[in-house]
Design goal:
Elements: H1 4-7, H2 10-27, H3 36-51, H4 59-96, E1 101-103, E2 108-110, H5 114-118, H6 122-131, H7 134-145, H8 150-157, H9 161-176, H10 178-183
Antiparallel strand pairs: 1-2
Helix pairs in contact: 2-3, 2-4, 3-4, 7-9, 8-9
């Protein structure tokens, strides 16, 4: 290994270079509440100390390179783990809650079918549908009656999320208008 090992102990190197670890953590905008990245930085510093060869370049540059790249590798690893978890949750959410039951750790409760309850007054919905644009009615039907998320509606209709939100804003604006409610004969 290098001559520097005989000149300095790792403790001395650590005391002189600890700020490098903090610098790279801050520079990479890492939130390190559990000190995991700090510990990884110490390990990278130790590894660089152990493998440093003086004829290959300045020690400070080698330390910076090792610490920074080790922290970036850790960020990538965390991001991959989070992506895998999110994918798992999305793929298995239907298995956990199929729409007919609310499940908790100790019980399972049946959910009333919203569309059966909401659609009891067909005439009311027909009056509303006649006064709305096609897209506004899609928002009412899919979001209010069917309970779909705005994201799902946007995907299904091949529209942007903002477009679907706009449909909902237009419907809510109409429903707040007393004259409109008289036209559709709502006594709400």
């Amino acid at each position: 290994m290098g001559e520097n090992k005989n000149q300095f102990t790792f403790e001395e190197i650590f005391k002189q270079n600890e700020r490098r670890i903090h610098f790279h953590i801050n520079r990479l905008n890492i939130q390190d509440s559990n000190q995991d990245f700090y510990r990884e930085g110490i390990f990278a510093l130790w590894n660089a100390y152990e493998t440093y060869k003086p004829d290959k370049g300045p020690m400070a540059t080698y330390f910076n390179y090792n610490i920074r790249n080790r922290l970036i590798d850790m960020i990538r690893k965390d991001n991959r783990r989070n992506e895998v978890q999110e994918t798992f949750i999305i793929e298995n959410i239907a298995d956990f809650n199929d729409g007919n039951y609310i499940r908790s750790s100790d019980s399972s409760t049946s959910i009333t079918n919203v569309s059966d309850t909401v659609l009891e007054n067909q005439e009311m919905w027909q009056q509303l549908k006649a006064q709305l644009t096609e897209n506004q009615w899609k928002w009412v039907y899919y979001h209010i009656i069917d309970g779909m998320t705005l994201k799902d509606i946007a995907f299904q209709e091949n529209k942007t999320l903002e477009a679907v939100k706009s449909w909902g804003k237009q419907v809510r604006k109409k429903l707040r208008d007393n004259e409109f409610r008289k036209v559709i004969d709502w006594k709400v």
